Amino acid sequence: MARTLTDRPITCNWGILTAILLAVSLQIFLFSSSSPGVLQIPPPSSVLPAPSNGRLQEVIKLGEGLLKQPEDVAVDRTGVVYTATRDGWIKRLLRNGTWESWRQIESTSLLGLTITTDGAVVVCDAEQGLLEVSEEGVRVLVSHVDGAQIRFADDVVGSSDGTLYFSVASAKHSYGDWPRDMVEDKPHGQLLTYDPSSNVASVLLEDLGFANGVALSANEDYVVVCETWKYRCLKYWVKGDVKGQTEILIDNLPGAPDNVKLAPDGSFWIALLEIVPNRLRFVCGSRAFKYLIRGIPKLGHWVVGAYNRAMVVNVGSDGKIIRGFDDPTGKVMAFVTSALEFEGHLYLGSLHTDFVGKLPL
Ligand SMILES: *[C@@H]1O[C@H](CO)[C@@H](O)[C@H](O)[C@H]1NC(C)=O
């Protein structure tokens, strides 16, 4: 996610405390009851997979020290694993165990990436749109939709016919401004598609609560798109009689979903962020707090507990949680944003590590 929930952990300092006091005072003295808002924060989940198992503390650290906040991971047909880092590198793990610094892009906001059928890497850049990275170099693949610049491309997946599906976390706010999106009364996330034959991008879904991870089902008949602020992931049908319809794959997740990936058995791995639900509810229910966060977005970081925790869940195509792994204290892995299953292992991306975690399944 909010991959942008990045940078550094927020320590509770006097500035924040003062701001909270100010918000509470404003709330009491200036405004009447809390604003209803449109953002519906779900109740605490009843579907926690299991008690904490600490399995994410057992990861092998790949490329430790070489990878600055590797938010997402992808694997190509030959088994080479790719990631995009905060310093603008696309780095890849060759089959012989060596990390190669492959291509550098002038960007601090590279997010989700995927490998197309013809072997190119397509990566989301939260400033420019979708970039295509290949042996020939880097080019902007998609930068506009309906005449407007795409600002906060977040994750992308490709189908076997070359069509791309990608998310725009917020059509209104930029990468560093995610707290402002959180306190909007109306969600601004989108699911888009790009047709390489016509070179045109179009919007499939709007009004998503921070559109984050995207994945295609095993038959490529629906796209899963995760809504971080809503603790849920949707299914958007792209084939068959129900084409164009949307339903919920899973809601009430035990964390705020970030990236989602298809597993070899047709289920999905979803990385969950600790966005503290009570704080999120409080912030979004308080007109005064919303007003403050619009002015000082950094205050919104208060809702993020992801630096002290990590969790991933495996969800069946029927929307049932099959299993989950966590690091309850963030001792080894915190802020896990991505989980890719490949050859019996999970590869875990994070906005708070300098390595990719590898966990035997
Ligand atoms: C792995 O392969 C790369 C590219 O062929 C090579 O540069 C590197 O030295 C190899 N590493 C090892 C440990 O063999």
Automatic annotation (TrEMBL):
<keyword id="KW-1133">Transmembrane helix</keyword>
<feature type="transmembrane region" description="Helical">
    <location>
        <begin position="12"/>
        <end position="31"/>
    </location>
</feature>
<dbReference type="Pfam" id="PF20067">
    <property type="entry name" value="SSL_N"/>
</dbReference>
<dbReference type="GO" id="GO:0012505">
    <property type="term" value="C:endomembrane system"/>
</dbReference>
<dbReference type="GO" id="GO:0016787">
    <property type="term" value="F:hydrolase activity"/>
</dbReference>
<keyword id="KW-0812">Transmembrane</keyword>
<keyword id="KW-0325">Glycoprotein</keyword>
<protein>
    <submittedName>
        <fullName>Protein STRICTOSIDINE SYNTHASE-LIKE 4</fullName>
    </submittedName>
</protein>
<comment type="similarity">
    <text>Belongs to the strictosidine synthase family.</text>
</comment>
<keyword id="KW-0472">Membrane</keyword>
<dbReference type="InterPro" id="IPR018119">
    <property type="entry name" value="Strictosidine_synth_cons-reg"/>
</dbReference>
<dbReference type="Pfam" id="PF03088">
    <property type="entry name" value="Str_synth"/>
</dbReference>
<keyword id="KW-0926">Vacuole</keyword>
<dbReference type="InterPro" id="IPR011042">
    <property type="entry name" value="6-blade_b-propeller_TolB-like"/>
</dbReference>
<feature type="domain" description="Strictosidine synthase conserved region">
    <location>
        <begin position="158"/>
        <end position="240"/>
    </location>
</feature>
<dbReference type="GO" id="GO:0005773">
    <property type="term" value="C:vacuole"/>
</dbReference>
